[in-house]
Amino acid sequence: MEFEEVIALSKSKLQEGFERFVPSALGMLFVFFLLRAYEILFIWRHIFFQDIQLRIILVGFLFDLIFFLQMSALLCIIFMVFFLINKKTAVIIFRVLGIVFVFIYLLLILYFSKAALPLGSDLFGYSLAEITHTVGSAGGFNLIYPIAFIVFIALIFAVFNRFDKIKLPKSVIYLFYFFVVISVLGAKNLAPKSREFANTSDYTLAVDKLQFFVAKSYNFFFVGDFEIPISNYYYDTDNKDTTGFKYVDSNYPFLHIENSPDVLGNYFNIGTKKPNIVFLVTESLGKGYSGEGAYLGSFTPFLDSLAQHSLYWDNFLSCGGRTFAFPSSIFGSLPFAQKGFLELGNNMPPHFSIIKLLVSIGYTARFFYGGDSHFDYMDTFFKKQNVSQIIDLKNFGPGYSQMPSSGNGFTWGYGDKELFEKYFQVINKDTSKHRIDISMTLSMHSPFLIANQNYYKGEVDKIISKLNLSSDIIAQDKSYRQMLSTVVYTDDAYRYFFNQYKKRADYNNTIFIITGDHRMPEIPILNQIDRFHVPLIIFSPMLKRTAIFSSVSSQFDIAPSILAFLNKNYKIQIPTETTFMGSGLDTVRQFRDVHSYPLMRNKNELLDYLYHDYFLSDKILYRIDENLNLIPSNNQIMLDKVGNLFDDFMQRNDYMLKTKRLIPPQFIF
Question: In whole angstroms, what separates CA 194 from the centre of its chain?
Fold first, then answer.
């Protein structure tokens, strides 16, 4: 065969390949659009229970189209390589890849239907055992799944076969590739940005779930894991930087002079005996459905009544969007490391915490949890705090009933009332002079199954009938009855807890600290800061006056303030230098924010930074108003400033990970 004939044959085969690819690709686009239609019709309303704007629907299809065109560029290259080798092989490879992509897309939609958030790189922050545990809570394996999968595969093959037989005009083929090129060249500018949506819920509805997962995964594996020279972080020994800290040792990047003021002492009657401190961390206790001003109405009547006799922060923030962050944030005010401080496991560097200090002066520390405390390495963390006893699923003992199981027999463990019953069984036998007790509740967690659930659903309906809510909010609340029933149950468990504790002789010398580990993700969030919005209640019979604070604080600020209180009023010595991320609770009653620190959504997404009344999220700057609404800001000077603070934290954090240095040896208990 002549050279010219070979060239002509190759060109002909290339042309045939490019023409054959387009119908197959359009078949995949058709399936994508079917999945989007399924998502709109059966999932959007199931999650958000509101009228979906036509604009959001159209933008959703636009997201799908743009990502499909970008994905087609890669698939076309793969297709053409195999097509030049063997036509049938190319078709088979494309169909297999198409089915894989479509199936993953379907799984991501189903995940969204459970979590009300698209799945990103947080998937890679959990071990296989933790993923299996979580999947089990959502229903686990069912025989219908493989049957449905087989039917699904057959339908996809039928669609691809149908589209492969379509003969498209050359003008359509040229137009297809033109849009593919445009989508690739304009990848960063074509798709709508999150800040262009009225709220986070609209954005999470519209975004292509497969594109979101791919983008987050790419950033995690190829962008986020950057290397920083260990001497490259900002360091200032002469002046306080804009975090408010005076750092003291370049070898320990978070070590600073501890000068948090005692802002709590004036609210207490100070006795001669050191107080017991009881931490009650509440699974998924979000401000959106608890406390005065809750936009869904408050479903915690007992805690609301307790708050009226307490110190109450209504603009309080968790430091993480999942449970992994609360132990290190509340008790150590510690940085996040890479996937959360606890994820370091036995490699956690030596660190300082309120628990360690109190144990060192004679306090007895215990941790109570109704589930498996090894989840998120909670047990590892608390053992490192010298906690003397951990009560959890493994040693709960007889006489207690676990929460109802889901269809596959899975249960997280013991409900909140059982947890508190176990708590009193243990401490009623305790003879310690001083205690620091930590309880973590569990019932407000997917799959939201509790004992006597129909009764608590009825209580939800009673609360709704008494609240002055709009018809839209009432419709949402009724649709969230399963979740909200667990909120009412946990509130009832708190009523039991305090009724029992009042019978104890040490009740009048105990300080109770109640907050949420994070907001419930299954109820859609309003904006990125809403996922962290939880209440904080500090209650004690020792209080001589109460107050409601609208100033912003976070879990990072609890340990500095409690220790400053104990230091000034009970002469408990604390280190003059600490690594606290927080500077203490703000007790100004009007709205303001004087703090500066990052917040971590999940184990693989550190994307948010709070600086005064500015919030940087996904590299977009917002102003925060008194209702914690986020207002997009075009202040370039402030964007640079907050961005530099965020970068500075990341570099200190990276240095700490490389060197395993948090505190000098003389501060180790």
Answer: 18
The backbone torsions φ and ψ at residue 112, rounded to the nearest 5 degrees and listed phi first, read -60, -35
Please, which residues have CB within 8 angstroms of residue 113's CB and are 6 or more apart in sequence? 43, 46, 47
> Which residue in 609, 517, 592, 516 sits closest to 553, CA to CA?
592
3-state secondary structure 532-589: HEEEEEEECCCECCCEEECCCEEHHHHHHHHHHHHHHHHCCCCCCEECCCCCCCCCCC
Place of tokens 């990125």: 528
Q: Could you give the CA distance from residue 577 to residue 667 in angstroms, rounded to a whole number? A: 9
What are the structural domains of the chain? Answer: 3-223 (no CATH), 277-588+598-667 (3.40.720.10)
Q: What is the CA radius of gyration of the chain?
A: 28
165 in helix, strand or coil?
coil
Angle at 583 between CA 578 and CA 584, to 5 degrees: 115
- Evaluate whether 296 touches 476 at the Cβ level (below 8 Å): yes
Name the 3-class secondary structure at 606. coil
**205 and 117 Cβ atoms separated by less than 8 Å:** no
Sequence-separated (6 or more) residues with CB below 8 Å from residue 395: none
Give me the residue label for tokens 């075009």.
634
- pLDDT tens per residue, range 24-35: 888 888 888 888
Name residue 172's amino acid.
Answer: V
Q: Global pTM?
A: 0.84
Cβ contacts of 332 within 8 Å, gap of 6 or more: 341, 351, 352, 353, 354, 559, 580
What band does 121 get if pLDDT is binned at 50, 70 and 90? confident
How far is 105 from 64, CA to CA, in rounded Å?
11
Which residues does 399 contact at the CB level (< 8 Å), separation at least 6?
none
Closest Cα partner for 611 from 626, 627, 629, 599? 599
pLDDT in tens, 447-503: 899 999 999 999 999 999 999 899 888 988 998 999 999 999 999 999 999 999 999
Place of tokens 């089915």: 99
Task: Report the distance separating Cα 640 and Cα 551, nearest Å.
Answer: 25
